[in-house]
Design goal:
By secondary structure, the chain is an alpha+beta fold. It folds into 2 domains: 31-353, Beta-galactosidase, Chain A, domain 5; 379-572, no CATH class. It is built from 14 helices and 23 strands. Strands 7, 8, 9, 10, 11, 13, 14, 15, 16, 17, 18, 19 and 21 form a 13-stranded antiparallel sheet that branches. A hairpin with a 4-residue loop joins strand 10 and strand 11 (172-181). Helix 11 (498-513) packs parallel to helix 14 (544-573). The longest helix is centred in the last third of the chain and has 30 residues, at 544-573.
């Protein structure tokens, strides 16, 4: 490779690595717009016994924290410590006792610090938004009961709001809410936003790239993430930043989640609208930042609500609003979510985003990995074992491909002669080339077939490893956390990750062993030869588990190529048997 090509590749590599940071400098995000309060009249929603029903403009009515001192009530189970707040009468914080906030080789001052959900969110979970008609001064009376916590408030309008929280096992919590009319005249209840959770970072190092709000309704799942709010053109050039998102349908569940944990709500009465708002969060606690690391400077979250329509309540409590919710507040473990989803018939496991064609492979690989782990293998060796099993399954196909490519390389002079002979007649040239291949029993697609067949497996691995809770904190050699990149040091602020580098080395060597396709010009051969550089750029900041899989896959392919060559050379050297007289 000439010097100019090396310089071009190096500059391209540096640009791709630093592109997103460069864009942030060139196009700094605008500050979030302040919320304004206004109301719109619901068309046709009038009541003879009371005023017209009104509903807030989406996103206009936001939470105003009370000035009074906050009262906190704590309720603990074996797995979770729940902290409830009098400000909004909801769940302020959930601390997952079994999961440390920081895993791997990074250490924190207090090792007892654990993963928290709804962390520093501006609104407690199950806070009711809807303007002064539903919030008042925002203060609730809290009381601890035998089964959980009760929050209650009576507004000046006579509307009584009661919430009962009953934490249970398996990271579940039952929530019942009532809205009752305690006066002698009708009360208009405007559109209600039940803020069930805010998706927040796992720890101070989490930049929120895998945070999202997902939902399942009308037989399919979908999600909204930071890419939507960035509103970037071609995924690179920032546009006008969005601050809110609304979707309508019939929703069986909605989940606010980060990479490994989620707060999901399952309403007994299907919600017809989900409203999500991007919110800025306070700075991280310094005590949570590992020594030698820097916290993400601009933490944010996605505050999400179930929205229910306006309603007029008649006196006497005959048509009070009563709703029941189930909250799941815990890890994104596929088998646990699938079991809960089967019990509630709502496909809760789709929180993992394992739907569709590639999701089938993701689920199969995860279940296989967990199955092997049950026999005592570490998760790293489970990945290696699965890679070996996949390679053995595709071994015959890869062997056929290797032999076909080798045969095509041997026939390259004759094929070039055909191309030169019929260069003025492309149709004739293609016809003669195909006839020549059929006569010599070679297939130009044979070299691509193994890659095409194994591609769904790779995408399945990628999908599975994106949110594989089981890998969090699992170590292998120098990699202290297989769910993250295997950084061993920093050079001028740039992470040194050995596994992607090893992956590139094995890809280069594999490309060297693979004969070029016939008819490929020298420039194309150079591009194919140095293609591993592109994969290093793409996968450099991905999880160590993914690059471990690809590195082992490359090593096995190299081994198979060499064994196939040795076997073919032995067959070629073997003398032909002499005919019997």
């Amino acid at each position: 490779m000439d010097r100019k090509s090396v310089i071009v590749l190096l500059v391209s590599f540096l640009l791709i690595i630093g592109w997103f940071e460069l864009v942030k400098i060139m196009y700094p995000p605008p500050p979030p717009k302040s919320a304004v309060t206004s109301t719109n009249t619901v068309a046709g929603a009038t009541n003879a016994a009371g005023p017209a029903l009104t509903t807030p403009v989406p996103g206009a009515t936001q939470w105003m924290a009370p000035s009074a001192q906050e009262e906190l009530v704590v309720f603990e189970t074996a797995d979770v410590k729940y902290t409830f707040s009098s400000h909004g009468g909801g769940l302020k914080l959930a601390e997952l006792k079994r999961f440390p906030k920081i895993v791997g080789n990074r250490k924190v001052t207090d090792s007892a610090r654990v993963v928290t959900l709804n962390t520093k969110a501006p609104v407690a979970a199950m806070t009711l938004l809807g303007g002064d008609a539903l919030q008042g001064d925002g203060l609730f009376a809290l009381a601890k009961t035998d089964q959980g916590v009760r929050a209650e408030k009576i507004l000046p309008t006579g509307l009584r709001i009661v919430k009962e929280f009953k934490p249970g096992t398996n990271y579940l919590m039952q929530v019942s809410v009532w809205l009752e009319n305690t006066k002698g005249e009708p009360i208009v209840v405007p559109e209600q936003q039940w803020v069930f959770a805010t998706a927040t970072p796992i720890n101070p190092l989490d930049k929120g790239q895998l945070m999202k709000v997902s939902w399942f309704g009308d037989g399919k799942s979908d999600a909204v993430a930071e890419t939507y709010f960035e509103n970037a053109t071609l995924g690179c050039f920032p546009g006008t930043r969005r601050t809110e998102h609304t979707v309508e349908g019939k929703f069986a569940w909605v989940a606010a989640q980060n990479q490994f944990f989620t707060m999901a709500v399952i309403p007994k009465e299907l919600a017809e609208k989900v409203y999500t708002r991007r919110v800025a969060l306070p700075a991280h606690d310094l005590a949570d930042v590992p020594k030698g690391d820097t916290a993400f400077a601009a933490p944010f979250g996605f505050q999400s609500s179930l929205v229910y329509p306006a309603k007029a309540l008649q006196p006497g409590g005959t048509n009070a609003i009563h709703r029941d919710f189930t909250l799941y507040i815990g890890p994104k473990e596929y088998q646990r979510l699938a079991r809960l989803g089967n019990q509630m018939s709502n496909e809760l496991d789709l929180i993992m985003d394992y739907g569709g064609f590639f999701g089938f492979f993701a689920k199969a690989l995860l279940l296989s990995m967990n199955g092997l782990h049950a026999f005592g293998l570490s998760y790293a060796w489970c990945i290696i074992a699965i890679t070996i099993i996949i390679k053995l399954l595709f071994w015959p196909l890869t062997a056929i491909s290797t032999r076909s490519m080798k045969r095509m390389s041997e026939l390259q002079p004759q094929m070039k002669a055909i191309q030169e002979k019929y260069k003025d007649d492309p149709t004739k040239m293609n016809q003669k080339t195909m006839e020549f291949m059929r006569e010599n029993k070679v297939n130009p697609m044979a070299g691509c077939l193994p890659m095409l067949v194994q591609f769904p497996v790779f995408i399945g691995f990628y999908t599975m490893l994106q949110s594989c809770m089981e890998l969090r904190g699992e170590s292998f050699l120098w990699a202290y956390d297989l769910s993250q990149e295997d950084t061993v040091a920093y050079l001028l602020g740039f992470p040194i990750n050995p596994l992607p580098i090893l992956m590139a080395v094995t890809m280069f060597y594999q490309a060297k062993l693979t004969p070029p396709s016939p008819g490929m010009d020298p420039m194309q051969q150079k591009i194919m030869k140095y293609m591993p550089m592109m994969f290093v750029v793409i996968l450099y900041r991905f999880s160590a588990a993914l690059t471990l899989y690809w590195t082992v896959q490359n090593l096995l392919t190299i081994l198979q190529t060499k064994l196939t060559k040795i076997q073919d050379d032995k067959k070629a050297a073997k003398p032909e048997p002499k005919p019997q007289k």
